Each structure stands twice: as structure tokens, then as C-alpha cells.
Amino acid sequence: MFSVLKERVGDVLLPGDEFCCGPQETLSLTDSGKPERLVAGPGIRQSGDRLLVSRSGVLRHKEPNKFWIESQQRRYVPAKGETVIGIVTAKSGDVFKVDFGGSEQASLSYLAFEGATKRNRPNVQVGDLVFAQFVVANKDMEPELVCIDGSGRANGMGVFGAGGLLIKVSLGLVRRLLAPHSDLRADLEKLFPCELVVGMNGRVWVRAASVQQTLIVANLLQSCDTMTPSQRQQLFKRVQQGGL
Q: Is 59 exposed, middle or buried, given 0-12, 13-18 or 19+ CB atoms closer than 10 A?
């Protein structure tokens, strides 16, 4: 099945497509250390001796044996440990309510900030943007966010957003931006030096040297959502030459 899957890498697959697992192959959702085991990522699930595609998108592969479906999904499902961009919508006692784009709002304690105490409360207002991390995220409990890491440090999290622009993109584009050696991020930095805050929930905050450059970067990011790498390079070249 490895050879069959590798032949289909880059192809568009649809829900219901399946691959049969031979007797010498083993499926695993967690063990990625053994090259003889196949790791099924997002969009692919195991059913007996078969691999079933559960979402439409492009089949991707990472050596040695990880396969997943890359799609233009926009609906975000919270996961513990992921960082997101949220909007403070209300204050309720000692807890802030934060909209992160999910099916329900998350709670954020005023003590979940670096240096916060009962006397030294953080200056958080309704409408502020926060970059926070999920510590509780399951279907049976209210999602809970914090703006500190395990050692109590902010580590880049907290209230932010002055002078920038918040946009919404697909979750696939977010993963491309957060990749260790992202071509998209490198191409953007060559065009306009800018600050990016990327949330796993599909929200991206952008700030460049001027309002005009900020709007251009935001429009480029949203345009790249459905472009191939060659189309993106042509677009960036036109922008660099002043064609837009």
C-alpha cells in the first residue's frame, strides 16, 4: 500500500476513497518512529484493514511514512496545546470570554497572564485581541485558554493588535505559514518586511510599515489560499514590479 499511496501523492481525493492494507503493513495513528509503520494523519482514518479518506483535499506525504489530506477547511476544532488568536467579548467576574471562531466561546482567567495577581490584574478590555493557548479542549468541557506557558512566562502570548489588521484564512494556509521553512513566508518577507501573528484557528494578524503595505500583505495572503506555488510566484513578481 505504501507504493500505491505514494503514487497518489498530489492527487485530489474525496471522502469514501479507500486503500487496502496488505498483511505485511501496519497502521498507526501515533507511532512515527518506525519506518515500517504507516502514520495516518488528518483526513485519513483506519477501518479494519482499510484506510478511508474522510475529507476532500490533496494527499500529502512526509518521509518516511506519514500521509495526510491537505484541505481548505475553515471550521476550527480546538485542540489542547494549540495557540489561537481570540477576541475578548465579555468580562464575567474573574473570567474573560473569548471568541476563537469555534462552536462556543472559551474562558480566560485574569490569573492566566504573566505576573497577574489578585491585586495586579491585567489590563484587558472587551474587543482586545489575545494570543493564547488551549489547556482544556474537549467536547465535554468548556474550552479554557491561558496566556502563559508551563513555566509561567508569556512567551509571546497575551494582549496584542495595535495598528495591525486581522484576517481570516483557511487552516491549510495556516499550516503552510507555520512550516519550519515556509516558502510563502519567505516570499512575503522579501516583498514587505512585516509582523505576522498566526493562530491555528485560521486567524492571521498582519502589520507592515504602512497601512498600504499592510493591506497589500493581507490581500496577498488571502489570494494565496487557492493558488499553486507557480501562480503565487507570478503574483508576487507582479507586485514587486508595481503591477498591482
A: buried
Asked if 97 and 112 touch (Cβ cutoff 8 Å), the reply is no
pLDDT at position 135? 94
- Tell me which H or E stretch contains 235: helix 229-240
Residues 239, 220 contacting (CB under 8 angstroms) = yes
Condensed to tens digits (0 to 9), the pLDDT of residues 60-85 reads 887 777 888 877 777 888 889 999 99
Q: Are residues 171 and 234 in the same domain?
A: yes
Following DSSP, what letter does each residue of 71-139 receive, concatenated? ---------TT-EEEEEEEEEETTEEEEE-SSSSPEEEETTSSTT--SSS-----TT-EEEEEEEE--T
Closest CA to 46 of 64, 61, 25: 25
Instruction: List the single range of 36-40, 138-142, 209-213, 231-235 with lowest mean pLDDT.
Output: 36-40
Taking residues 239-244, what's their average pLDDT? Answer: 73
Predicted confidence band of residue 106 (pLDDT cuts 50, 70, 90) = very high
Strand partners, 91: 96
Q: Is residue 107 located within the same domain as residue 154?
A: yes
Tell how far CA 122 is from the center of its chain. 27
Amino acid of residue 107: S
Residue with cell 494565496: 224
The range of the structural domain enclosing residue 145 comes to: 83-160
